[in-house]
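G., the chain you wanted modeled:
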Amino acid sequence: MIPPRAIRYTRVSSTQFASNPIMTSQSRDSFALYLIAALAVMVTLYADLDLGAMFEALLARF
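Predicted structure as tokens:
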């Protein structure tokens, strides 16, 4: 398991919390790996479906 990286503060400010990034590179990488795995599962389970139509239906909901 990859240990979390320390947050480095570059400025001294009373609003220090507002300058921190919302998503760290570790959480972004974890999210990307989850999406890749979820897509692989969907392709495996629903190989007989039209994936383009399924994604269009998902996008139409948002």
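Helices lie at 16-19, 25-45, 51-61.

Shout if anything looks off.
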